[in-house]
Every structure is written in structure tokens, then in C-alpha cells.
């Protein structure tokens, strides 16, 4: 009985540890993008859209490209393109204005310090 208590499910966790780390990394990156691109702290970001199709477990192998995976990507891109076009390309973007400029002596200055 003591040997059962001492292992505490380590063997079960060991087999899934890679999935846990990859999943945690994915969730953290998703949350970071959502947070950084959010315009209002109390609302979801309108400038971020995650495309993450659900596939059967073990259907694809990590870091192994296949024709099926390419086809899935093409289908998902076609499916998402209308939504993304409406969300991101409906209005013309404002002209780019750099946040910093360089004076004739080559010293970088912040625009808001002028």
C-alpha cells in the first residue's frame, strides 16, 4: 500500500507531460496575444482571431508535414478568409506614422518628447 501512495500517479503524468507543456504554452501564447491586442481591458480583442481546427487525436504527428495537413490548412484558410476579410480588411488603414524620428545628427528622438 505504501508503494502505491509513494508513486502518486507519476507514471500516468509522465506519459502526458509533453501534452501538458505544449498545451500550457499554446494557452499562454493565445492569452498574451489577446491581452496585447486588446483596445479595451474589459472586452475581448477585435484585432486578434485564432484559427484552431479540432482534429482527431494522433491524426497528425508533431513537426511532420503531410498532404492531408496541407489540405486541412487550405480548407481552413478558405473557410476563415471571408470572416477575416470582413474583420481586418473592411476599412482602409491609416498611413503609417513612425513613433520615432532621426534628427540630422543621427540621434533618435521620441515623438512624444518634442
Structure description:
- The protein is mainly alpha-helical and 114 residues long.
- The chain has one domain (2-93).
- The chain has three helices and two strands, in the order αααββ.
- It has helices at 2-7, 10-36, 67-88, and strands spanning 100-102, 108-110.
- The chain has a two-stranded antiparallel ribbon.
- β1 (100-102) and β2 form a beta hairpin.
The helix/strand order is: HHHEE
Q: Beta fraction of the residues? A: 5-15%
Overall number of domains: 1
Number of helices: 3
Query: Helical proportion?
Result: 40-55%
Q: Low-confidence runs (pLDDT<50, min 5 residues)? A: none
Major sheet: arrangement of strands:
1-2
Class derived from helix and strand content: mainly alpha
Give a brief outline of the structure.
The protein has 114 residues and is mostly helical. The chain contains 3 helices and 2 strands, in the order αααββ. It has helices at 2-7, 10-36, 67-88, and strands at residues 100-102, 108-110.
Which helices and strands occur, and which strands form pairs?
Blueprint: H1 2-7, H2 10-36, H3 67-88, E1 100-102, E2 108-110
Antiparallel strand pairs: 1-2
Amino acid at each position: 500500500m505504501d508503494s502505491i501512495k509513494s508513486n502518486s500517479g507519476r507514471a500516468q503524468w509522465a506519459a502526458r507531460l509533453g501534452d501538458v507543456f505544449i498545451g500550457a504554452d499554446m494557452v499562454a501564447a493565445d492569452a498574451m496575444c489577446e491581452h496585447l491586442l486588446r483596445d479595451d481591458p474589459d472586452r475581448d480583442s477585435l484585432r486578434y482571431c485564432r484559427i484552431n481546427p479540432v482534429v482527431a487525436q494522433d491524426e497528425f504527428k508533431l513537426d511532420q508535414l503531410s498532404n492531408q495537413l496541407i489540405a486541412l490548412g487550405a480548407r481552413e484558410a478558405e473557410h476563415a478568409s471571408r470572416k477575416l476579410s470582413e474583420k481586418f480588411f473592411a476599412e482602409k488603414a491609416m498611413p503609417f506614422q513612425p513613433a520615432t524620428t532621426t534628427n540630422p545628427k543621427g540621434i533618435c528622438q521620441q515623438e512624444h518628447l518634442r
